[in-house]
Amino acid sequence: MTPVILHEKVLSRLRPHEHAEYTVRDISFLACSIFGHCYQHDIQAIFNINPFSLTFWYEREDGNIVLYRSGKENFEFSKILAEEFCLRPEYVSAVAMKLKSLTDEVRSFLTLHPSREEVLREWDAFVHLYSEFFAYHQACYWPGDYIAKLKSTEHKNTIDCLSEAYAYNEMVIPEVEAYVRKLNLADYHYQEAASSSPTAHTKHPLPSLLFLDGGMMILPFNEAKKLHEAIQKDYEGSLGEGGVRGLGVNHRKIRGSVRVIIDLADLEMVQPGEILVTTMTRPQYNSAIKKAAAIVTDEGGILCHAAILAREFDIPCIVGTKNATQFLHTGDMVEVDADGGRVIKILV
């Protein structure tokens, strides 16, 4: 398949009417390869739900990973599981307990295999365990977010159960990232690590992965960059001129200066009273959130980390805007209206 035909095929799956979704994460090439496999295979095998036919993991020049996937497919995954959870409370409990159990198993594995040689001897077991963990991680978050948006008190126990399980596992991915980076395994595809000797791996400079219809391709940087730019152009064109709108949390209004954070290394730049604008917060953001007057994120829903911390610290928050990090810039003066779910630029 030529690059042109490949790009057209990918773009056709991510058109605006299908609500193309993208996230920015500071995760390794290894994690991308395992998570991509999970989206294509394990989610279907475990939950009997159609797999994600497309995920594109693009590594930017700053080292952060951009994940593209079909919002339509993610919505269907969330909806199907959410409806089953609402009908079968015992299934919710089973999934939540399984995620907690897998969380403990992953942490135990890291402790019991402290060296590169030890983990490579059990590599297939590690990959299977981590992929299964990620499948349940997704199954607790996205359906829980879908149910929360129904705003029905009837499902409060279901939401609480999923939220508790998600909070229990929240630090596992950062812990695994630190582990594989320490053992110098972060830059390899999981199949390469399994088939090569510890000294025979070939690192991929700025690699990108495309999982499409059950297959996987490692794309050269220039080809991946062109695809990334084409998706971004199409995506940004679908956002329109409506500014920044999303789901308001901890409803009230506040004004302040914007601080856009994409790279975790820049978190220390957040000053007291600033409006923290980012793709999505994680536990590493907690110290910055304590200083912020409000939070605005591209991603997330009622159960996300940013929403939970906003309620805990009693600050306004707007999540799921899709375009906050593109529309807003550090130094902008804005009003965060969590009641209306919007951010308004203030002319000074």
Describe this structure in words.
- The chain is built from 13 helices and 13 strands.
- It is α+β, with helices and mostly antiparallel strands.
- The chain starts with a helix and ends with a strand.
- The model has no long low-confidence stretch (mean pLDDT 88).
Overall morphology: globular
Q: How much is the radius of gyration in Å?
A: 20 Å
Q: Percentage of helical residues?
A: 40-55%
Please report the number of helical segments. 13
* Main sheet properties: 8 strands, mixed
Tell me the distance between the termini.
52 Å
Which structural category fits the helices and strands? alpha+beta
Please, what is the average pLDDT?
88
Order of helices and strands: HEHEEHHHHHHHEEHEEEEHEHEHEE
Going across the biggest sheet, name each strand in turn.
6-13-12-8-9-10-11-7
Share in β-strands:
15-25%
